[in-house]
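Chapter summary example.
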Amino acid sequence: QVQLVESGGGLVQAGGSLRLSCAASGRAFSTYTMGWFRQALGKEREFVATIRWRGASTTYADSVKGRFTISRDNAKNTMYLQMNSMKPEDTAIYYCAARTVRNSYTDDSAVGYDYWGQGTQVTVSS
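The structure predicted for these 126 residues follows.
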C-alpha cells in the first residue's frame, strides 16, 4: 500500500509561481514512475508531467512544457512540480500518482497509475 499526500496548492496571480509537493510512503519510492495529473472543473483528468524512477527521464504535456518542471528526491520520498509563468487555464485540482508495477500503458496514461493522492487545488487568477 502506498500513500500519497500533495501539498503546496493555493491561489496565485497569472504569471506567478507555485511549487507542489507529493510525499509518498513506502520504501520502494525510488523504483516508482511518478506523475502529475490535473482536473479542471467540468473537464476530464489530464496528464501534466511524469518522471521515471531515476529522474533522468521526464515527459511533459505540451500545454506546460517550458513552464513546469517535475523533479524528485528519492532520499525524501518526495516528488515536486515547479510551476512558473502560470496561466488561468492551469486552474485545476492537481493529483500526484504512482505507478508501482510495470504495465503496457504509456507514462502519460492515467490508467497506468495504481496509487493516487487526494489532490490539491491550484487557482490562477487573471
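To summarize the output: The radius of gyration is 14 Å.
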